# Entry
Amino acid sequence: MSTDILRMSELYAPTLKETPTDAEIASHQLLLRAGFIRKTASGIYTFLPLGYKVIKKIENIVREEMDAIGSQEILMPVLQPAELWHESGRWNDYGPELMRLCDRHDHDVCLGPTHEELIVALVRNELRSYKQLPLTLYQIQVKFRDEIRPRFGLLRSREFIMKDAYSYHTSQESLQQTYDDMMEAYGRICDRTGLDYRPVQADGGQIGGSVTCEFMALADAGEAELVYCSCGYAANTEAGECIAFPTVYDVPAMEKIATPGVHTIAELAEFLGIPETSTVKALSGKNDEGKLVVLFVPGDHEVNELKAARVAGGFSLLTDEDMEAYGLHKGSMGPVGLPEGAYVIADRSLQAVPKWVVGANEDGFHLVGAQPGVDFTVDEWADLSTVKPGDSCPECGLPLESARGIEVSQVFQLGDKYSRAMNATYMAEDGSEQPYIMGCYGVGISRTMAAIVEQHNDEHGISWPASVAPAHVCIVPLTVGDEDVQPVAEKLARDLAELGVEVVIDDRKERPGVKFADADLIGWPIQVVVGKRGLAEGNVEVKRRSTGERRDVSLTTLEEMVSFSKRNGADIPKVIASLRGMVEG
Amino acid sequence: MSTDILRMSELYAPTLKETPTDAEIASHQLLLRAGFIRKTASGIYTFLPLGYKVIKKIENIVREEMDAIGSQEILMPVLQPAELWHESGRWNDYGPELMRLCDRHDHDVCLGPTHEELIVALVRNELRSYKQLPLTLYQIQVKFRDEIRPRFGLLRSREFIMKDAYSYHTSQESLQQTYDDMMEAYGRICDRTGLDYRPVQADGGQIGGSVTCEFMALADAGEAELVYCSCGYAANTEAGECIAFPTVYDVPAMEKIATPGVHTIAELAEFLGIPETSTVKALSGKNDEGKLVVLFVPGDHEVNELKAARVAGGFSLLTDEDMEAYGLHKGSMGPVGLPEGAYVIADRSLQAVPKWVVGANEDGFHLVGAQPGVDFTVDEWADLSTVKPGDSCPECGLPLESARGIEVSQVFQLGDKYSRAMNATYMAEDGSEQPYIMGCYGVGISRTMAAIVEQHNDEHGISWPASVAPAHVCIVPLTVGDEDVQPVAEKLARDLAELGVEVVIDDRKERPGVKFADADLIGWPIQVVVGKRGLAEGNVEVKRRSTGERRDVSLTTLEEMVSFSKRNGADIPKVIASLRGMVEG
# Structure
């Protein structure tokens, strides 16, 4: 194979006519069908030549943006000693996603799913002075997470490629500065890889960290749900603040009503002939100290257990046995007549509801007109519900809309969580020892590749943005070896390659239909078709994959563009824009 | 940090004054001291910014050479399912170097030490026609081998970076063609990374394959011993053909001599007053079928157990109990009076020796004048000894010399070993199903980095070849912030950076001595020192790290070189050559 021009006759890119049965979403199906990836085992993939070309392009975009904000590239090992994970406490906390093994000398090691422990251990005896801070290090590396149900191809795999960066600071202000730089860099990475995305408020999860933001590529195949507003606000529904609009069912006084067979909010609303927004939903559990906690949210909302745990000091649902012991009834729990010592937390939105429709703590009965502060006490008002579309935007008050998204990257402010646990300090200006203030920042490289395909495909295949395409232009000679067609195709390929454009020539002895189908399936941004009939008029056909637009272009025009670009040192984006322009006329 | 110019004040490159106690060899010591790597666990390292810059340069050289011979880059996973290793038989054969774990669904997986199984499985249902062959795929990836005694830093680590390539063919001729291309590419890789090397005959080891060659970087720290000849011949002593020069101790007839207390060859030679070359050494063992095998080699040589196993059909030493059962005596074994059924193999070099000095199979006695064919029978003559310096070159007959080397890369002809075991076939031109003929080809990327340092260092530190240096030129302003010095240093840095040269500026507020020591330790190929005194005469000092030569150069000369290079579009090697030329005067 030439180093300059890819030849389809030599390229190893086996395409599939049939969609593999276990591939459910477009990116998984198309990356398999177009010969970009192959499955090696459940959740474990090999990148074939085309796939790895795309990965390298994404990596280079990420690398350029990291270097531009002064982050320095390193490479940490995959194998991580258990000792470091014991120091942070995560060896026990992490769960079965952490892949562990024992080496031949009986030392426990794990395969890195993330590198907080290593990055702290790496510098803790050497990055000693405040004068050396701030510092940001990053790596691009393979990561491991033993997903219980790997699926959706590269979106949820067990071995995947990530860029992870870590920063060390002397102050929150310095952390905020780097965090802001990273946010901007991540936006540019999404822009440059052609993603339609939203930065959204998120939850820290297992990494920890209170301030965090996810970059979501909007896609129906995404596993995350997010709410957003035209004002620019966006949040993961797992984390977003909920401001609901409950309605009031007004009755003169509290009354107990027989509701035989009514167990769900939907049944209750129907039975009373009121909207679900006028009802109140209850959920009971225990906090980490074993105390009974009863939560109330608007009937049309769900309790967000992450929020509940944060407010209540841990939260786990009661077992059926617990319920019975407390005399509580599923389907008719309420705030009146709770067991002694129960701690009642209600969603803030319910503060606007003076009279509640809620369970009576008696099977088959509900209360209407139950008044907080009169008929029962609320110990604490808090944000407890999972936000949903129609709720109020916390920034501007307009109703929120919802979408699904793929989390392609995330930034965290870790604070001193890891440096304190691992006793990693620097000497401050006043001579005291202080733990580093830290941030961490991840980009899913292989996941970004899948997200791009989710956003850039149609019924014919993939349509790569030029910035990450495995090559920019595919030249399709219709009759390989023809004495008119072949030399024109080859010269065009050479001319474009000399401008730095990445060119592939489909020199296979296949029917035109096969070549067109493969070119659309693989998704080269620009196709140039060279055929006998067009050449008779001095023309080739140029096609833009993303729009499907095609047009006859004279060879003279192409030659003029090439020689103009050579004289003027045009860069690749300019040449591609010229080719696109020819199609648009 | 600027994207163009590295600044020492921002670069994370912690240097150490003391040599770490567990680092025995130069590359390990210097890569730690100069801040290129840090140890994460036994045999497991992190590459710091400078170290990873060198790794990426080596990777890119390898990538260019692979692409140039038409090899296509892919990326296979680290995690490999046990099923595939059972197919090849290596799950049981590989030994404790293979790191294994069980995933959460109780499936056995291993961390790839090599990828023959995966590469065969990758294509076996898709690379179906002889028309698609030959094909060569490669990857650059982290590999795992659980060494029992990791040591020498990057030379023998448990997690390391390799390039591995695999080729598929329809014939031995086609394999030979790619094998030859790889040999040439590997030679160019060694040349371009600045290595003094020898391609040597080697043994296939655990990978298998009969035709194989190792590229050895010559270095005293190398774990391999090799013999070579001025005619160009070279071989690993584990694998090289042995042509020894035994001498004859002539006596009229066979005689049994009492040799009380004599157990070693040295003692026997001294006792008889003859050279060791006149004695014959014996070794007894069993082959894979349990048959007694007795081996004889010239007394000054050692039995090569790899050769013995190949000739005898497996070879394992007798236990003390076995020896006793057979009536054999360590220290006085010989060919006369061996147990019934013993199979006698003697080194070919002994064919030239009509009378042997050898054990008498009786404790405290030896034979002199024992004649093969008369007093005893040799069942088979073969190449059994480990070659050593002074033996005859198999190509030209001159005496061999010896050296130590670091194996940086190896090429193998695998034949159909893996494709046959894993039932991986293509359809041949005649319609029959045939197993692929295969080759595999590895380059140790991180090991190459260590080998370069072993060959390019002195008492002051590392001296990188420009092709793999973390940056080409270090500009050292002696007084940072000085109104004369600083602007000149910065302008020089910008001018060189605009030419594409990688520049680092030591803008730390440190004493000149510290800066000079660090520059020599880190090993930038060219240093440019900007000081007040020199500037007064319009000069800076340019130093070439590898030779230590230094010379005052006028700023005018430097400026002329820069503007000439800009006008003429000079490439980086030319600019560096110009700077070197200024030092050489």
